Backbone:
């Protein structure tokens, strides 16, 4: 295969060296636009700050420009000084998601020269907890009519046909306040909360078979416990935060009711209320859909496993599928230490992903 017009590794280095914490993606956006302009790729920057380029009626490559903050504890290199050791490039965002972004931009530039139906959707706000900040959701609601989509998150060369959703719940347990020197006069909601945590840990997960993947199941974690007031007073209220990873078929209300039943069972005599604070949808695309077949075949031809899988976390495939109605997969390079110190991505897998994306564009051109 001929050398690509844009070297994915060189672009990756430039991207990692350019900080782009959520809400401050301007410099990375400018870098991408410069590359597109240099090679005559048509583009626009929408009202959210996303970059849309190439042929968006073909297969759309979706990669986010933002990262989490640098954080502490880096040893191999500083977060914004990319360094390659043993084939791994280290730096903040290297795997999530600048490796996939570099591969996507390189492929879309090459597709421009070959006249292939391949588009780029480089977005802002993916790492934000608020949907109002999410660039992919914004672009999908504006309208996106494509043959298929590829979310370029790291998958180690696996082709993920969906992901779990995330439902955040708050469990409020109300008791009766009293001075801590006379606990018998009160009703301690923290003691009840401890029993609720144990009961929730015993909840059976939801299970479902996903075609091409096998069985997938939900998970539940209590991630926070809070109570207000001075340290010498039994509080009248305690709050738990529950992170529930949903599978297709789960709904926010069905999950809320399950959690509420378990909490009330564990805390008789206490007032218990369960609220849904945030809900994103689980996604599953038919493993026989054309975009899945195209990506699997292209990955295998580039020496990658191309095994069909399912993402345990959550990403923007939700919006491509549920908002835009575009069958999509998650497929990207190999990486590690995501969101932690010494984040890395395998450089060769970035190059291979760029070639895979290009092969998919060639297949789409024959559609």
Residues:
């Amino acid at each position: 295969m001929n050398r690509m017009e844009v070297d994915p590794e060189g672009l990756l280095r430039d991207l990692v060296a350019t900080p782009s914490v959520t809400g401050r993606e301007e410099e990375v956006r400018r870098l991408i636009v410069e590359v597109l302009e240099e090679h005559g790729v048509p583009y626009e920057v929408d009202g959210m700050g996303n970059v849309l380029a190439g042929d968006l009626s073909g297969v759309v490559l979706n990669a986010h420009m933002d990262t989490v903050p640098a954080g502490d504890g880096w040893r191999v290199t500083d977060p914004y000084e990319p360094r390659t050791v043993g084939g791994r490039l280290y730096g903040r965002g290297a795997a999530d998601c600048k490796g996939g972004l570099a591969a996507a931009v390189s492929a879309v530039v090459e597709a421009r020269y070959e006249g292939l139906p391949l588009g780029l959707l480089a977005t802002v706000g993916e790492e934000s907890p608020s949907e109002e900040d999410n660039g992919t959701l914004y672009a999908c609601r504006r309208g996106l009519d494509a043959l298929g989509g590829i979310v370029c998150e790291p998958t180690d060369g696996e082709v993920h046909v969906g992901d779990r959703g995330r439902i955040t719940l708050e469990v409020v347990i109300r008791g009766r306040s009293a001075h801590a020197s006379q606990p018998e006069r009160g009703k301690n909601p923290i003691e009840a909360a401890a029993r609720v945590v144990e009961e929730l840990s015993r909840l059976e997960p939801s299970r479902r078979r996903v075609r091409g993947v096998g069985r997938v199941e939900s998970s539940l974690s209590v991630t926070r416990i809070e109570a207000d007031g001075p340290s010498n007073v039994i509080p009248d209220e305690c709050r738990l935060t529950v992170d529930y990873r949903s599978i297709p078929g789960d709904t926010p209300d069905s999950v809320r009711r399950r959690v509420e039943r378990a909490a009330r069972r564990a805390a008789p005599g206490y007032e218990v209320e369960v609220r849904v604070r945030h809900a994103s949808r689980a996604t599953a695309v038919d493993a026989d859909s054309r975009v899945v077949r195209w990506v699997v075949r292209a990955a295998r031809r580039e020496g990658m496993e191309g095994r069909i899988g399912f993402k345990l976390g959550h990403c923007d495939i939700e919006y491509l599928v549920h908002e835009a109605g575009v069958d999509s997969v998650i497929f990207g390079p190999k990486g590690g230490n995501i969101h932690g110190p010494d984040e890395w991505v395998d450089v060769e897998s970035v190059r291979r992903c760029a070639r895979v994306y290009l092969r998919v564009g060639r297949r789409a051109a024959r559609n």
